[in-house]
Amino acid sequence: MLCIYDGLRHGARMTTTFPDVSISTERLVLRPYELADIPAHIEMMNDEMVTAWTSVPHPYTHKDAEVWVRRIAPNERRTGRGIAFAVHEFLTQRLVGVVRLRSTNWRALATEAAYVTAPWARGEGYATEAMLAVAQWLFRDLRFERIEVRTPADNTASQQVAQKIGCISEGVLRNAWIARSQTEDGGWTDIRTDLIVWGLLPEDLEGIGDQMADAGGYSSYPDWR
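The chain above was modelled as a monomer; its predicted structure follows.
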């Protein structure tokens, strides 16, 4: 869906949905989810760290994954709310994680980013590489002005990714998130926690973006399939 926005002076043309694209880096391919991704997606979403810090259902079932791939992820893009990228290793095509944009404000050209990394892929810099590529695409190709990231107060791994891509800590939303803690019997219980708000503007990528250029940069192209 495209909208024509007639500005007061310039008659600016404004899109209200993200294009159907894939993004590539030296090591990764970020593309729309496919049905073949379901088994690896289920395994990733049932990881203890994902259960603890996200709001995904637990246990995460095949039905949950199918609803995500068939309905939720594509509808995010179609309705203009956001876009979800399945992140894969370029050489192996193994699922590394997911980067999701949501709560997009097309007038303000601002969106919120969230990311999850599969347990086997952690510590390799994949989340940072994927997020930098998405940020470059948003700022350079789509002329976005702001990306926001919200991390639970004790999720240091997620906070490190935000810092590495150049985000600036802007404040704390007190008692704003429900995380989960594992109990002695192996179950899970809800706990309230703060959210740290991080902001990323185009100028924040200066210098940091060169890391991607040194690694071969990124490219985007329509209709992966």
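Residues 1-13, 215-225 have pLDDT under 50 and may be disordered.
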